[in-house]
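Contributing new complexes? Match this layout with NAP.
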Amino acid sequence: MSDSGERSEFDVVVVGAGMAGLYLLKRLRDQGMSAVALEAADDVGGTWYWNRYPGARCDVPSLDYSFSWDPELEQEWEWSEKYATQPEILRYLQHVADKHDLRRDIRFETRVAAARWDDEAQRWRIGTEGGDELVAQHYVMATGCLSVPKDADIPGADRFSGPTYYTGRWPHEGVDFTGRRVAVIGTGSSAIQSIPIIAAQAEQLTVFQRTANFSVPAHNGPTDADKRAQYEADPAAYREAARWSAVGVPIEPSEISALAVSDEERDAAYERGWQEGGLFGLSSKFNDLLVNPVANDTAAEFVRNKIRSIVDDPVTAETLCPNTFPLSTKRLCVDTDYYATYNRDNVRLVDLRETPIETITERGIDIAGTGGTEHLEFDDIVFAVGFDAMTGPIVSVDIEGRNGVSLKEKWADGPQTYLGLTSVGFPNLFIITGPGSPSVLSNMVVSIEQHVEWVTETIERMRKDGFTTIEPTPTAEAGWGQHVNDCADITLFPQAASWYMGANVPGKPRVFLPYVGGVDNYRDTCDRVTAEGFLGFRLVGDDGEQCNDGVVNRLQHDVATMLKLMAELELPPIETLGAAGAREFMAATNVMRPPGPDVGEIVDGTYPGADGDLAYRLYRPATPGPHPVVVYYHGGGWVIGDAISDDPFCRDLCDRTGALVISVDYRHGPEAPYPAAADDAWAALRWVGEHAAELGGDPERIAVAGWSAGGNLAAVVSQLARDNGGPALVGQLLVCPATDLSKQHPSIHENAEGYVLTKSLMEWFIEQYAPDGSSPLASPLLADSLADLPPAAVFTAEFDPLRDEGNAYAKALEDAGVPVTHEECRGQTHTAFHAVDALISPTPHRADMADAVNRFFA
Ligand code: FAD
Ligand code: NAP
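Output block (do not edit by hand):
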């Protein structure tokens, strides 16, 4: 019992009684656990308790933004509008609390100040601001992502003598602005919802905008008939589809690039999206808006043109046009009449980039005008300046883990979590929708439910299996942090100074906080972690411990997505198609890939191979020549492929290096087995050496390059050129090269299946080309000496059967004194580098390849 006479020991202490806290209580109670929720407010609701500003409503349709765990509730609750207002959502959550009698386990007006892990007792000791201490085996932070309002951080903010309001702490009795001169500072979602309503009431409204924001119309009204029908046909299936969608709302993802359609088609799609309105109308029309800046700008410009068409005054319209960050990389706002509000006579927009606030005064706000300070007088100031998002609510509690480690200190340079749910050094601490989880990039109810279910099921499993503590391992946590960053880095999100990046709070580390890999992938990841014996967690009980250490999701996110799509196609293994079938198959799939960048000129021709003419394709840069030359050998296991089968990669190499790239064909097995390909590759190099000048190249600067089997040939001809006194090569770029046909390297077993190039396919290739690969002209790694070879750049992929033989070749070259650039590309596969414009994560590696080639030529 605590000093106040209340029970103080629990299985689980939950902080927060918003959506997450309510569902946690319900689940824990159903599991027969003792649990209490501590809540700073005097009622349930969280976000919907605090944010009572005019116009506050959800921007995910209520039909989606509602609990799915109580089918009876779903039947009995009827939302009055597509996007319900704050009072209606609050009533809903109060109804949930009443219906399930949850209030009896909630202590209101109780703010948690500190929590300390007591290693001896194996319990959390949770201290409230009121001085009570509660003891619990598990401690769950359901404190929300947007529950700590940000300070105004404006000089003189506390000087103003009139009333000030924060949108996130709005007075319960409401505010009547009739006849008043009101300032609103901020133009985020909260401001954009409240400005039209305040403008309609106030005598004068002045909006202070630091960064113009993108907003799309809500078109609020009754729930869309189609959506309702889709839902009512099978509510359970609808909810399940939401759970396995990218953002927690069942919408069909687009498979079309914004750049793959005509300007007219694109604008028509955006117009349809604008008319549909809401978060997903416009932004879901194409698949590359969040990854390709050019595609994104087409949508951004569409919105800017809408603003120009709505706002009468051209100067105000331009000021409202966002142009400092890509669309949707800050949370997209959803409004009712926001832009049109600026056509009212009583509304003025102040652009803080032109005329910054000097100070807030007793009577108003001073701004630096062109002609000196301008004094603006107000009766009320509304601060719509946002939140210390995601980490703020967690680190505002003084959490001390094992060995006295403070969570705030651990997170000083950015949050470190495993799955966004847990953190090393803090056993039995769970965070709902924490940093590193999809949370704010999704329909939060779906993410909250998934987290609550994972946490409560984990606690239940621990109890059944006799474990008393759970904690992630450093390896798992570091791996997850890497994955979260990798996922963000292939998007445009990091380009915006957003609260997702911590950029809105002065001094906060700039780290992309949420997980952008999608609700569906995230759910699958959590499920796999559980299924793989709590991968990355250490569980300890009286009878022992269990730790299946490791990293989840080691593939780059876009690579994994592509592999998943390919797996769904259930394609036959290439080696079962025979050589002709395999070639046909490859040609057919090549037609479907993005073309790669434009180059100055493309010339197709023939060269004399070792046994007759063979094709080449020459890629010439647009710049004046003569250019340095890259003789390129295509991939395809010496069986498939030709001079144009690596076309996008060659274009990319030409574009990035400014070199003339000559992709040469060679004869293939089984019709022309070893040494035919090596002979042709050597003939091609000699021919280019002799004709470089005629082709527009610089004979003094010739390098070779190749991918896979082509990497093998590039390595082979480098050795031949050394041994035959020329042509003199300035470098060799070997991408995932086959260097040793013995099939002995561990990676061929480790990565035997699942990454396109399989062990069985590689074995088949070798069988067709050089079953006895013991000659150095088949296995360049087996050469007597690698000394005096030209400088090399060797790129290998982590998930490639050929990884280790490529790495071994790089090491052997280095040992032989050859200058080597060696990159083992994390999370990449054998085929990823060639998916130009289809995959983003390999792009930096291709840039590194080009840098290495340019160093050869320098
Ligand atoms: P919260 O609702 O934030 O609840 C956390 C609770 O913890 C609060 O009540 C707080 O008082 C309490 N608490 C925090 N710290 C302590 C402490 N130390 N001691 C005691 N109590 C504490 N998401 C969407 O998906 N769709 C939307 O349309 C949407 N609209 C939003 C509109 C606004 C204005 C805002 C601010 C957010 C919106 N969100 C929306 C995000 C919203 O926060 C979540 O959808 C959801 O309500 C979060 O629920 P929660 O229980 O996790 O956290
Ligand atoms: P926000 O998006 O962070 O917006 C804050 C605004 O205040 C920004 O325009 C910001 O400008 C400005 N600002 C901050 N500090 C300032 C300063 N010192 N001087 C001048 N301007 C300053 O906050 P929010 O509007 O409260 O929304 C936060 C999140 O809550 C949303 O992104 C959304 O996820 C959720 N939300 C949802 C809804 C909904 O429609 N359902 C409604 C409200 C909130 P800068 O951009 O320059 O930093």
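Reviewers usually confirm one structural detail per submission. For this one: The mean pLDDT is 97.
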